[in-house]
Every structure is written in structure tokens, then in C-alpha cells.
Amino acid sequence: MLLSDPRTRGGDGGLEGQMRIGRMLVDGRVEFVVGAGEGWLPLSAVGLSYADTPELIADIENVRERVRDAQADPLPAGIDDLRCPVVRPSKMLAIGLNYADHARETGSKLPERPLVFAKFPNSLNDPFGEVGIGERVTAKADYEVELAVIIGARARQVSEADAYRHVFGYAVANDVSARDWQRADIQFSRSKSADTFCPIGPWITTADEVADPAALWIRSRVNGEPRQDSTTSQMIFGIPHLIAYLSATITLEPGDVILTGTPAGVGLGAKPPTFLQPGDVVECEVEGLGMIRNTFVKS
Description:
Number of domains: 2
Number of helices: 6
CATH topology of the largest domain: Fumarylacetoacetate hydrolase, domain 2
């Protein structure tokens, strides 16, 4: 099922088109929920249950219909109740050095084509969960606020013109990085894929709600101190190009995640470099998509 391009839609769309989809602790168990005003509607309240995000995406039209006709009252939710909204993606692909200022701060050349690496699903973490670091994991933990793209329709060799039709929604991510292992391995996958190294959320905002994903401010803070402050317009390779480039050789499936890169302001780029320590709190925020906050702890 192809999705329509959100940039061509008119009107406010209503709840049947526009959604925030999260996961929440409800009566002792975690389930998918849909944002309803200031609260959340558990999908169990409308007779629905899904094992993972791809399964929910496949049934999204039914979800929209049931939620539109729901009689149940939404539940309030604190941040401690929210869980990672991405469950069992077939793959997570990330893009390195996709902001020119970040490439410059790390002393790297601007890439001529997207720099792609895998970030394994074991790294997924809750939007307000703890991130494990310490000497057994890394001595040089770093943060990277990123716009995450969640695929909604199977994409194989798609054009840039059709790319947005394959996007289900967007979320905020922190591409936590072990800079010591990144340098030692001379490739990124292990250094980016430690357990808990990909907090994501706080929910998935469906593409209907994001008028222009290439014009969102993106920011991070460490212990309340601003570190990164940019806009997604500064990406070297935009979302349509990334989807076309990746799908040329890798079939993207519903629920897959693309992390689109980070702007300048990471710890590695400071002079001298400044890395995270147990007890540090990192906040990552993207305009209109919410904010995630993670405490780094000794693991």
C-alpha cells in the first residue's frame, strides 16, 4: 500500500489522517496507543492489538477507522509510561556526516554520496530510558540528535519523486555513539549498536502532520546546556534522495528506520572533545515531533 505524499494534502485531515502513535504502559502491560488531545487512547480499548510496528502499519486504515469511532475515554500519560514506539523493524539504516557543519567539526571531507551504516535493533531504547555506558562499554560516549524516518510502504528502487509516498512517519532519535570503538574499528556499526544506544520517540508522528520534514529545527542539550541547534534543511542528502539511494539496492520494509544524520555540536567536535559521563542527561528535540530525554548510567 502506497501512502500519499503529505506535501500535497489540503485541510486539517482530521484524526483519520493525522496521528501520534506511541507505546505506553497500561495496566501493567505495554501496548500501542494513539494520541487523543492531551491523552492517549489504548488500541485495546477499540479491540485492536499488535505485536510490532510493521503489523500496526499494515493495518493502519483499520486503526484510523476504529479510533475515529471510539467511545472510550483517553488516558493521561507521564513520561515514565511511554515506551519505544518502534518494535521489531527488519532493519535500521543510518547516515553519517549528512550535515556539512558536522563533517567540518570532525575534520572529515564532505561525502560525495550518502555514508550508510547499520544500527542494529538491539540498540532501540525508550524515549525516556537509561543509556548504559561506562568502561566496559565505552570511554567516549557521545550524543547525536537525529530525525528518524519510519517506512510505511515497501520501497524497492523508488524514485526521489515517489519517495515520500513510502514514509509512514517521523520521530526523534539519539544516535548514541562510542567514539573510541568507532575510530578503532574503522567502521560504524559496532560503535553505534550497543544495547540502549538508540532512544527513539517519544512517539511516531504520521507523515500527514509534518508539512515539510526538510524545514524542522533540530536541537540537543546536555544537562540543560544547548549543544546542537540547526534545521533539517541543512542535510546534504535529503529524505527523498536517501530513500531512492537506499532502495536502489536494499528493499525497505514497513517499520524500517532511517536515521538521517546529525548537525554540528556533538561532544567529539568540541575543543577539547567532551564525552558523556554517568549521570549526564541528554535531551533531543525536533520541531513538532516532541522531545526525548535520556539519563546515561554506568553499565
